[in-house]
Design the sequence.
């Protein structure tokens, strides 16, 4: 065999092995410990050492890789992972993601992949339809909601400064009119980092007070806006990362609009309430914003990484993000994905989205959202009945609880201890947070494969951990 033939046959062997390894992993997902079991140093040790001088065959490499990382994998694709807001991968989306890797398309330009850009054009329309966003909005496919927030705010910065007669792309921010940026007290950390990257800084952002569930208070927003002149951007939130609460978008949109300001909505997971009839009221007014950011790798259950930015006014994203060079050839009439994202070369995320959404259909997306919300309510009820203190109104898929010693005492310490024990025991996985000055355990039900029995088993495990800590075991 010559070298190319050998490589081709090794490739076939490696992919076949990966197929088996993936099947084994997915089959075991339901029963493996949900948390990783190996200490970090052991993983580095198993993977590490100097890069060998000589290469190894692909099939051996994938076996070594799978064996070395196995004890460090989280079962976050599985049904009893409730950490952060994660979500798994729908079978169709996962399968399409494999193809995406095999196809190895660069989604940056239609010239680099007509297929990747065509699928984005189609998926963009589906997503706007599902979320009830304006039909004309532009859509960019990015790595996650961090970059979706950044991208939406790049368009916002462009627009509010252009209206003030300033070309921020050409002239930058030095000497530009000051831009007022208002954010809720409970804005997500990625809004803050977006403001840093945009050159607005976080110290200058005006923090608008929030209520006990973390919703922006519109009286406070109104008062703050009344004192401001000039270019202004308001960042609201659909789905607080702890409580799941929604800022009152209809009132915020009305205030923002009457002030002539730009409204950006961070809807990393909450945006999808719009797709579910029983939750749609939570996002009333959503469609009146100017830009939106969301994730598909969270609640839409496509593989990492997949975030989406939308901008109402057609053309603004292109004006703010357009890249040109003689070699970046354009195919007239086709979508060039790079015009809608900060990236140039880019993974073809649209394929997995297309497949995931097609496998669910509109009804299936609504059902996924409704089911996770119903399961979150079930989980909250069980935990409360078992002695946990529920800290949030469970309006969506987030549950926030805390454990307090029966005879009085240190609830923070008990909550931390129960959280650590659950993570160690591995029946389910969730992590801690601080809410309004107190330790809490936060649980997010975001996975397509979670069923009632997973929630019940997890609630039992959490309550057993509480009993064990109470008994000092
Ligand atoms: C997760 C999340 C983000 C950040 O999304 P990434 O996909 O991690 O970049 C932003 N905002 C909210 C409300 C989130 O929940």
Sequence:
């Amino acid at each position: 065999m010559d070298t190319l033939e050998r490589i081709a046959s090794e490739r076939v062997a490696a992919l076949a092995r990966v197929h088996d390894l993936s099947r084994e992993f997915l089959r075991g997902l339901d029963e493996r410990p949900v948390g990783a079991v190996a200490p970090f140093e052991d993983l580095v040790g198993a993977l590490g050492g100097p890069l060998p001088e000589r290469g190894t065959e692909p099939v051996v490499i994938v076996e070594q890789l799978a064996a070395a990382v196995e004890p460090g994998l989280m079962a976050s694709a599985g049904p009893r992972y409730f950490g952060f807001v994660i979500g798994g991968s729908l079978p169709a989306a996962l399968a399409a993601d494999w193809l995406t890797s095999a196809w190895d398309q660069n989604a940056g330009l239609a010239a680099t992949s007509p297929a990747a850009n065509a699928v984005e054009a189609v998926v963009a329309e589906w997503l706007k339809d599902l979320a009830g966003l304006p039909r004309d909005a532009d859509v960019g496919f990015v790595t996650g909601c961090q970059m979706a927030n950044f991208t939406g705010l790049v368009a916002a910065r462009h627009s509010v400064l252009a209206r003030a007669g300033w070309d921020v792309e050409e002239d930058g921010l030095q000497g530009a009119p000051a831009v007022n940026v208002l954010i809720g007290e409970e804005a997500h950390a990625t809004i803050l980092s977006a403001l840093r990257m945009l050159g607005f800084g976080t110290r200058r952002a005006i923090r608008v007070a929030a209520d006990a569930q973390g919703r922006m208070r519109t009286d406070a927003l109104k008062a703050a806006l009344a004192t401001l002149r000039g270019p202004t951007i308001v960042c609201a939130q659909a789905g607080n990362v702890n409580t799941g609460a929604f800022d009152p978008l209809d009132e915020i949109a009305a205030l923002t609009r009457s002030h002539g300001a730009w409204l950006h909505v961070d809807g990393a997971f909450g945006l999808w309430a719009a797709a579910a009839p029983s939750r749609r009221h939570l996002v009333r007014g959503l469609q009146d914003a100017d830009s939106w950011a969301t994730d598909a790798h969270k609640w839409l259950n496509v593989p990492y990484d997949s975030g989406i930015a939308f901008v109402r006014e057609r053309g603004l994203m292109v004006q703010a993000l357009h890249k040109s060079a003689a070699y970046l050839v354009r195919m007239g009439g086709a979508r060039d994905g790079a015009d809608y994202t900060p990236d140039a070369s880019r993974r073809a995320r649209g394929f997995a989205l297309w497949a995931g959404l097609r496998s669910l259909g509109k009804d299936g997306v609504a059902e996924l959202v409704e089911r996770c919300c119903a399961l979150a309510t079930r989980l909250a009820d069980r935990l409360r009945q078992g002695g946990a203190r529920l800290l949030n109104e469970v309006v969506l898929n987030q549950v926030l609880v805390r454990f307090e010693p029966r005879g009085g005492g240190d609830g923070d310490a008990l909550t931390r201890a129960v959280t650590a024990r659950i993570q160690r025991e591995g029946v389910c996985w969730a992590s801690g947070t601080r809410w309004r000055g107190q330790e809490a355990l936060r649980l997010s039900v975001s996975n397509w494969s979670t069923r009632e029995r997973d929630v019940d088993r997890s609630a039992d495990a959490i309550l057993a951990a509480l009993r064990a800590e109470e008994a000092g075991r």
Notes: The longest strand covers residues 438-444. Residues 238 and 381 are 24 Å apart (CA to CA).
